[in-house]
Amino acid sequence: MSGLKKASQSYIFIFNMQGVAVCFDGVSEKPQPVADNNRGIIIPLRQTIKNKSTGMNVEIITIGDELLIGQVVDTNSAWMGEELEKENFRIVWKTTVGDDEADILEAVDRAMGRARIVLLTGGLGPTKDDITRSALCKYFGAKLRFSEEVYENILQIFGRSGREVNSLTRDQAMTPDVCTVIPNLAGTAPCMWFERNGGALISMPGVPYEMKWLMTNEVIPRLKRAFRPDVFIRHRTLWVSGYSESALAMALEEFEGEMPAFMKLAYLPQAGLVRLRLSAYSGGEEESSKAVAFQESKLCALLAGHVLSEDDKSPEVMLGEVLLSKGLTLGVAESCTGGRIASLITSVAGCSRYFKGGIVSYDNNVKRKLLCVSERDLSTQGAVSRTVVEQMALGAVSVLGCDCAVATSGIAGPDGGSPDKPVGTVWIAATVEDRIVSECYQLGVMRESNIIRASNMALLMLLGLINGGGLGFNNRQALLSCRG
User: Fold this and answer.
1) Nearest in space to 121 (alpha carbons), one of 46, 216, 222, 189
2) How much of the chain, in percent, has pLDDT values that exceed 70?
3) How many helices (H) and strands (E) does the chain have?
4) Looking at the chain, which residues constitute the CATH 3.90.950.20 domain(s)?
């Protein structure tokens, strides 16, 4: 090795699958590349001396410039993480890199050195910026070969829509010769499964519905056959109101200190609410399940009156279940929340069985003409008032023909406030049959936060009224304390 000039040092040589060497000097623990002059490339390096690949640890790598600049939001890794943990695969790292070969190689190299399973999404399309396949060929020392199986899948997909396969799309049938090719029945880019040193790297398209099809039908079943869990993962998530994140942490400080070492408590704050996730990572399935159940019962006792849901159900899901169980229908009348309440309600599958519709009455003329709000009250009380918001709720019931309704009217900000009604002033009303309640809340100065919090409060207010309470699960002071 002519490049190794310090003869007094010791070197450790590691060979990749094709027998090409990389070396570690005995001092710095930094890998030194050894050129493969026959191919004219530097083989990527796995930093395996200090990192340990244990159990069912998974790293997810998402690839694409669009993810880095915020043009596209990475929903892939969130979905993958949720689905994999159900099968006891623990996600320990997530990495996002752009469409740059050196960055992809570095990310893959690091991941292969610290995780047993590496999942990639993105960069497998037919255009020049899709370079994941070529980067993986370089990393694994592979050559491309034509896959008749992949090409037949492409022909079938194009044939269904009467299109002809062009040369760029045909090139997607060129696959590395050292991987297992998994046809993608949801798209043209195949899934590629590589193996090395007892671990696996699986590369999938970045299109969400293609990735989900592959994960559900191919990747997760294959992972379950190839790897046995050494840790059983159990989660339980509670929704809590009436606490800020910091206040809740202080209230649960002693509880957290008494938890077993294999358990964790995570705080997931939202506007006006906090989700508490209990997690257990133990070597026994029964041990994990029993530990989570026991700690959950302790939490519920400590937070009596503040736990909205014990099974990770959001307010809109809980409200929908109650409406269905009681045979009630719902309508909404929104001003400052601008349709967000309706959006939350319709995000729940099956909501058509109870949701009649909504009216976004931003302008006073819409309040007056569609919701029958008194013009006099609008002039004398103002749109942000108890009188107007109650008329909005009753108007929704009348116009939409529903059994119950919620209404909001306020000043979301950042401007539009006055000394009497500053930014963050929001009136909310809820009505069920012949009952109606309304309350004024002083929220904050951040527009988005005010809209989200007002929407959550409206759902909780109606839920409490249907269940026989007044303002929801907690009193007004408890709801307002969520500001911290």
Assistant:
1) 189
2) 85
3) 18, 22
4) 315-483
Please state, in angstroms and rounded to a whole number, the distance separating the CA atoms of residues 484 and 482.
6
Residue 55: the pLDDT is 63
The dihedral built from the CA positions of residue 81, 207, 205 and 183, taken in this order, carries a sign that is positive
State the pLDDT at residue 40: 34
CB atoms within 10 A of CB 32: 15
CB 424 within 8 A of CB 444: yes
- Supply the pLDDT for residue 295: 96
pLDDT of 224 above 90: yes
Residue 393: CB partners within 8 Å, gap ≥ 6? 333, 405, 406, 407, 429, 430, 431, 436, 438
CA dist., res. 224 & res. 261, Å (int): 27
Q: How far apart are the first and last CA of the chain?
A: 63
Q: Is the pLDDT of residue 22 over 50?
A: no
**Tokens standing for residue 37:** 């002059």
212 phi-psi bin (left φ>0, alpha ψ -120 to 50, beta other): alpha
Q: Give, in order, the Cα–Cα distances in Å from 445 to each of 241, 424, 442, 483.
A: 21, 6, 10, 11
Query: How do residues 369-385 score in pLDDT, each as one tens digit?
Result: 999 999 999 999 999 99
Q: What angle do CA 161, 163, 167 make, to 5 degrees?
A: 140
Task: Give 176-188 as a DSSP string.
Answer: ETTSEEE--TTSS
The pairing of beta strand 355-360 with beta strand 330-334? parallel
The length of the chain is: 484
Positions of CATH 3.40.980.10 in the chain? 57-226
Euclidean distance between CA atoms 327 and 321, whole angstroms: 10
CATH 3.30.70.2860 location in the chain: 232-309
**315-483 under CATH 3.90.950.20, yes or no:** yes
The pTM assigned to this predicted structure is: 0.73
Assess whether pLDDT exceeds 50 at residue 89. yes
The superfamily CATH assigns to domain 57-226 is MoaB/Mog-like domain (3.40.980.10)
| CATH class belonging to 232-309 | alpha beta
